[in-house]
Write a structure and sequence with these properties.
single chain; mainly alpha; Amino acid/polyamine transporter I; 18 helices
Length: 468
């Protein structure tokens, strides 16, 4: 059997798998714990920050959906940047995105290890993190249909938890929840809707935008479904409103029921949901939230490993990564080499946890701080150029960005403005600078690869096909 028979993905994902994978990727511990920091910063007006972030995601997903329906590809926006902007752009954003998800896996493994160690202290945290990492690598070795089924039910736990929270919180707001002291929506204006002024809301918005990255996973995974175009069309529309509902709905309930200056909101050992459930009179709130966070980080780890391995596979297909990363299992069609390589930072996190040096990992994580915005910027620029090209060729699009090109230009200007404000204001200055530095290094690597023809020729392995 020729080697080419072992470098192709087999597919098998269903629309419900795609929808849940994208939801799983974007809803992590940041919602259940980390959102408390933004609430404490901006007060109830943090709703505006989450609403702004949600609108940005809606527009970006619409642009990405337009390109993905026209040309489904497992490399998604990295492939489109390659075709629309140039090889250096696809190379850079592909590797930046891979770096983000691989580093995130290490952090998720660390968090899971800490939770399990708290429950069962007889075993070290690094041991639990190692077991989790090895187990989920095994899951990613499965046929993609089996993987999708596993991820569907895994992610469903946190989705159900959020829905229950929305129901209980809504009952408390309308005075129909019989337990706890939290009632009505008095906290929404009790100390002022915007107690720390508009500047705090802007800073919160900058922080909130990081939380939404992951919705774009659907366009990466759709290439492994039976009908990629239709799958993208359906899931892009549904994922956007579901994520906005889960985030904005949850935050609205919290700011209605819990004072924004509650000390627990900024306590990393407790967090948003813990404080809210405690106010609702639900016993064992800490245990419940830790269970939800545990399943959430495991689900995020799973989605991250899938996404990173497929991005490596796409980069390899285009000659921007070693060809060995195209290798897929004979029976499963899974890019197992990409799975293994994408797990390296998770094992690094295990080692740093075991040697009590996990603070070094935070330095690496800072370089991922604004990758979400760079990804969104590349998507917008790619859609702008690809749409103009397709229109010039007279191609009829099934799925279009609204008010083109004005909304596309608005997104581009908004993201550039956000990056400038981050540097000037200072709160997220290091994240912008470190991510820009990392991006600059990868850009240089991409340009060198392009100038010297490193990797496969651009017409090999399906790279840069003509736009349809």
């Amino acid at each position: 059997m020729s080697n080419s028979n072992h470098t192709e993905l087999k597919g098998g994902l269903k629309p419900r798998h795609l929808t849940m994978m994208s939801i799983a990727g974007v809803i992590g511990a940041a919602l259940f714990v980390g959102s408390g920091t933004q609430i404490a910063l901006a007060g109830p007006a943090v709703i505006l920050a989450f609403l702004g972030g949600g609108i940005l995601v809606v527009l970006v997903m619409r642009m990405l959906g337009e390109m993905a329906v026209a040309q489904p590809d497992t490399g998604s926006f990295s492939t489109y940047a390659d075709r629309a902007i140039g090889r250096w752009a696809g190379f850079t954003i592909g590797w930046l995105y891979w770096y983000f998800w691989t580093l995130l896996m290490g952090w998720e493994a660390y968090v899971a290890g800490q939770i399990l160690h708290e429950w069962f202290p007889m075993f070290p945290a690094w041991g639990y993190a190692l077991i989790l990492t090895v187990t989920l690598i095994g899951v990613n070795f499965l046929n993609v249909r089996n993987y999708g089924e596993f991820e569907f039910w895994f992610a469903l736990i946190k989705v159900v938890a959020i829905i229950l929270f929305l129901v209980i919180g809504s009952l408390a707001i309308v005075h129909l929840w019989p337990w706890g002291e939290a009632r009505g929506w008095s906290q929404l204006t009790a100390q002022g809707f915007m107690p720390n002024g508009p500047k705090a809301v802007v800073v919160a918005l900058l922080g909130v935008m990081f939380a939404f990255i992951g919705a774009e996973i659907v366009t990466v995974a759709a290439a492994e479904s039976a009908d990629p175009g239709r799958a993208i069309l359906k899931t892009t529309n549904s994922v956007v409103w579901r994520i906005c509902l889960f985030y904005i709905g949850s935050i609205f309930i919290v700011v209605c029921l819990v004072p924004y200056n509650s000390p627990g909101l900024q306590d990393p050992t407790r967090g948003t949901y813990d404080i809210a459930l405690d106010a609702l009179g639900i016993p064992y709130s800490r245990l419940i939230v830790n269970f939800i966070v545990l399943t959430s980080v495991c689900s995020c780890f799973n989605s991250a490993l899938y996404t990173a391995s497929r991005m490596l596979y796409s980069l390899s297909k285009r000659g921007d990564a070693h060809r060995i990363m195209q290798r897929t299992g004979r029976r499963t069609g899974t890019p197992y080499v990409g799975v293994i390589i994408s797990s390296l930072f998770a094992f690094l996190a295990v080692w740093l946890t075991a040697t009590s040096q996990m603070d070094l990992y935070d330095v690496l994580m800072q370089a991922t701080g604004t990758i979400a915005l760079f990804v969104y910027l590349v998507i917008a620029c790619s859609q702008l150029r690809m749409r103009q090209r397709l229109q010039a060729q007279g191609v009829a699009l099934q799925f279009k960005m609204w008010l083109f090109p004005w909304l596309t230009y608005a997104v581009i200007l908004f993201i550039i403005g956000a990056l400038i404000i981050m540097v000037v204001e200072g709160t997220y200055r290091n994240e912008v600078l470190y991510t820009s530095l990392l991006g600059g290094v990868i850009v240089v690597m991409g340009i060198v690869a392009q100038v010297f023809g490193i990797g496969k020729p651009r017409d090999a392995a399906g790279a840069n096909p003509p736009a349809r």
